[in-house]
Each structure stands twice: as C-alpha cells, then as structure tokens.
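From the methods appendix. Each design record in this collection lists the tokenized structure first, followed by the designed amino acid sequence. Records were kept in a plain field format so they could be parsed without special tools. The example shown here is representative of the layout used throughout.

RECORD:
FOLD TOKENS (252 positions):
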C-alpha cells in the first residue's frame, strides 16, 4: 500500500496553507479529523505544534516552517531517518534557486528572497535532513550575487564548491530551481572565503533603473547607493528612502 500524507489540525489558516502547498507540489494527501481513526494509508501526519500531543501516532510532524515541515514529512513517509549524502545546489541571482538532494533524490526546492537568505535555507536543510556528508554547490555565474551568497555561507564555516553551470539554464516553468538541481549534481572545486563583491557598471545602472520604477519615476538613486544595494549593504527600499531624504535636504 502506497502511503500518503495526512493533514490533521483545527487551525484553519494552517490547514489552508498546507493544502495549498501540497497541491502546488502535486503531493497526494488526505484531510483527517480528531474524531476519526487515522487510516493505515497515512504514513505521516502534518499538524500544529500545539496539537501534536493529541495525535497518537509516531509519525507526526509539527509544522513550524511550511516548506521544511513538508520536506520532513516526505522524509518520514519514505522511512528515512538520515541520509548518506546531502547535496545542496544554488543557482545564484537576485532571488537564488536552491535545491536539496538526498541520496540522489530531490527532496526539497526553494527560491530564496535574497543572496543572503540562502544561508538560512542551507542551515535549515542541514538540520532537517541529517546526513553523514553534506556538499554545498553553487554555480559560477553572476559573480556579484554568487560572492554575496558565499560570504553569507562562510559565517557557518560550511564547505562549498563552485560548479561550472554551463548548460544548467533551461527553458522550464522554474528555471532557477531546475538549474540548482543540476548544479547540486555536478562536482565543483572547493573555495575558501572571504570573497570580494564588486558590482559591474551594468549592475549598478540596472539597480538605478529599478529605483526609478519602484519610486514611480520620482527617484533615481546615486551610483554609490546603487553599488551598496548590489553589494547587499542596503535594500533597494532603504536606498530610495535615503535618496529622498538627501533630496529634501538639498531643497532647503
């Protein structure tokens, strides 16, 4: 009998979020009730931390982070308590793709909100999926964002390989994630921090263009502020706000 995931919670918001996330991943699941017996076909149950103690089943996954909890439930469903090899692939960019592969199988994928946010997803993956050996691999392209990611990862002293990502970009519905999967499966060469983040003139101009769009054509931030955004020292929103304050001071 093929086991499926079950959702058992009276928290309506959590239930809604779990259903949406499982449907988006095309994962089969059943909705459960506290008043009924859990069917034998259910291999792992997702619930809230507050309700976990009410469920008399060993394979219960309390949900904190939706993505990680679903990935953990899938691990439980497969009967895996640990992995031999964990490969984490990263496709660098403004919003990097992240793929997690356990013993050759894709077990989770993410889009990080920023280059620095990748480190959070990597830490979360290594905690959620314990493995005898973990390898972190990042594509060699987009040096500015790649080096921001590498510097963020270096704070956890994690070993990282840079991979030649030629041929990993494909025209798919999720190109960044698919590229990250290919990168995770490709051997690279070890690198050591720190890494210099040096934005190109083109990247600086692109951030200035984005500042005009985001401010409705009111503000074009300076090249210095744009460079700070490209290096990850400032958010674009903060740079626009700073440029507006500077503009008001000049008008006085």
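DESIGN:
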């Amino acid at each position: 009998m093929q086991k499926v995931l079950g959702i058992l919670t009276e928290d309506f918001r959590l239930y809604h979020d779990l259903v949406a996330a499982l449907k988006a991943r095309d994962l089969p699941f059943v909705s459960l009730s506290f008043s009924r017996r859990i069917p034998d076909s259910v291999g792992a149950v997702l619930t809230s931390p507050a309700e976990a103690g009410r469920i008399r089943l060993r394979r219960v996954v309390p949900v904190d982070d939706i993505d990680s909890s679903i990935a953990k439930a899938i691990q439980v469903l497969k009967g895996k308590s640990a992995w031999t090899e964990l490969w984490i692939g990263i496709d660098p960019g403004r919003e990097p793709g992240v793929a997690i592969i356990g013993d050759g199988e894709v077990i989770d994928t993410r889009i990080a909100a920023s280059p620095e946010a990748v480190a959070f997803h990597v830490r979360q993956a290594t905690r959620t999926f314990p493995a005898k050996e973990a390898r972190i691999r990042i594509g060699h392209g987009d040096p500015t964002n790649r080096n921001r990611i590498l510097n963020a990862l270096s704070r956890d002293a994690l070993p990282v390989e840079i991979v030649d990502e030629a041929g990993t970009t494909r025209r798919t519905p999720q190109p960044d994630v698919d590229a990250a999967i290919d990168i995770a499966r490709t051997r690279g060469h070890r690198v050591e921090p720190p890494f210099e983040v040096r934005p190109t003139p083109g990247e600086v101009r692109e951030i200035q263009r984005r500042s005009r769009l985001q401010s409705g054509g009111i503000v074009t931030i300076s090249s210095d502020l744009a460079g700070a955004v490209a290096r990850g020292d400032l958010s674009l929103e903060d740079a626009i706000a700073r440029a507006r304050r500077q503009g008001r001071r000049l008008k006085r």
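APPENDIX NOTE: The mean pLDDT is 89.
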